[in-house]
């Protein structure tokens, strides 16, 4: 990742724009935050409360997937940049402060990755390497949320049947396609949720009031009103991918890191094309989720359906990438109107949005807790305390939080417990209590 003036400007502009859109409720990166924003816009929630939720939903991803993958690949990623700008934008008290704080975050990320890596990996107990375990199951856990949402909305029997179908596709899908197991899990689960909602409304043959029928169209119109800002963000993100400083997902970042390090340009371009194909398949699997949450909330994703990543990888230069990114976002938003009109006839889809939010929280909380526990055990195993000692430290922190009224949200306590465990083990090493093994 080259630290040039151009790259610094691009990253600062990307983060400034995404933070501003987050503050204004136009778009966010985290799918779990999207359903919360209408609660604030419609006056049912304070900005401080929304910021607390955004922090709780995102801090674990930033600390694990974001920082960990950036240090490993030497590429910036959406979890590091956009989850943080979600929080920054929402928490900023004034709209003019949001882009300033966002730009500063981009500058810190681009210049600070090397320094952080040197400091943390230089500790006796390697905290950074172990923190990679925190995000091990996040993507897999997150992909299971449609099953939980279905159980919440349609009952245990339907949920179990759906889970069996999803697992069949999860295990068999990657054998005959380039789509990953997690992408198959989410794609089939979301499709099942949509189909069940439609079938329920068709069977009831409910006739909703015009006001209810138009709610999706109204929120889609809100997204269209913000289209110029969304297109600018799409152009900037595509450029960031094109100049080799941003990778769009875990599907692409590791292979992109290899490709950018290759001296054989032909082999590098071949690998980049493969990466672009995989990213395209991933984007297809995310369409149902992003489209559904967008038309039910009126809040879009900062990267849209994520096809702009593909454009960034394969376009010949930054100018073409910028044009392609803006056009892709334009087409996506125009198509949302048709989706909104379709969903306006199915009130169960509107009801599903709350279940989706709760299910996302439940699945990610569980995955982060498991991953954080693994990180604690990894750090403990490198000292005389042993894996059990690391587990005991992490568990103690978690249980204290639970028994004292959950001062820290469950979404954040796992990663925080893992970080605290690493710090404690380093301190006990310094006083000779837990020597390295």
Automatic annotation (TrEMBL):
Question: Keywords on this record?
Answer: Membrane, Transmembrane, Transmembrane helix
Transmembrane domains' residue ranges: 6-29, 50-76, 96-122, 134-156, 176-199, 227-247, 286-312, 319-339, 367-400, 412-432
Q: What is this protein called?
A: YhfT family protein
Q: Which InterPro entries match?
A: Uncharacterised_YhfT (IPR019733)
């Amino acid at each position: 990742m080259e630290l040039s003036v151009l790259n610094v400007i691009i990253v600062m502009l990307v983060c400034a724009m995404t933070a501003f859109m987050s503050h204004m409720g136009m778009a966010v990166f985290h799918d779990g935050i999207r359903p919360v924003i209408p609660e604030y816009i419609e006056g049912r929630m304070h900005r401080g409360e929304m910021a607390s939720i955004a922090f709780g939903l995102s801090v674990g991803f930033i600390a694990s997937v974001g920082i960990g993958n950036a240090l490993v690949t030497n590429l910036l990623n959406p979890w590091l940049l956009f989850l943080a700008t979600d929080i920054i934008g929402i928490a900023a008290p004034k709209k003019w402060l949001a882009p300033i704080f966002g730009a500063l975050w981009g500058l810190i990320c681009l210049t600070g990755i090397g320094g952080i890596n040197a400091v943390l990996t230089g500790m006796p107990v390697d905290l950074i390497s172990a923190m990679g375990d925190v995000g091990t199951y996040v993507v897999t856990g997150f992909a299971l949320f449609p099953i939980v949402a279905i159980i919440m909305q349609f009952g245990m029997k339907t949920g179990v049947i759906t889970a069996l179908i999803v697992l069949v596709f999860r295990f068999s899908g990657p054998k005959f396609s380039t789509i990953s197991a997690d992408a198959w899990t989410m794609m089939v689960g979301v499709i099942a949720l949509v189909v069940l909602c439609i079938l329920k409304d068709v069977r009831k043959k409910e006739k909703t009031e015009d006001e209810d029928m138009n709610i999706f169209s109204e929120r889609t119109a809100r997204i269209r009103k913000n289209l110029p800002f969304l297109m600018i963000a799409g152009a900037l993100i595509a450029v960031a991918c094109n100049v080799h400083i941003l990778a769009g997902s875990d599907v692409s970042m590791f292979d992109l890191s290899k490709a950018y390090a290759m001296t054989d340009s032909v082999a590098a371009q071949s690998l980049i094309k493969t990466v672009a194909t995989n990213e395209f398949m991933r984007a297809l699997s995310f369409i149902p989720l992003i489209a559904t949450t967008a038309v039910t909330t009126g809040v879009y994703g900062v990267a849209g359906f994520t096809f702009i990543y593909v454009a960034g990888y394969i376009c010949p230069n930054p100018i073409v990438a910028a044009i392609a990114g803006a056009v892709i976002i334009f087409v996506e938003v125009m198509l949302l109107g048709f989706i909104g009109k379709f969903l306006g006839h199915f009130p169960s889809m509107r009801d599903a949005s709350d279940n989706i939010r709760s299910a996302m929280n439940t699945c990610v909380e569980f995955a982060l807790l498991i991953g954080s526990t693994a990180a604690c055990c990894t750090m403990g195993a490198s000292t005389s305390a042993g894996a059990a000692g690391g587990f005991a430290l992490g568990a103690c922190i978690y249980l204290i939080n639970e028994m004292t009224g959950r001062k820290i949200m469950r979404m954040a306590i796992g990663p925080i417990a893992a970080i605290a465990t690493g710090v404690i083990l380093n301190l006990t090493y310094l006083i000779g209590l837990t020597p390295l093994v």
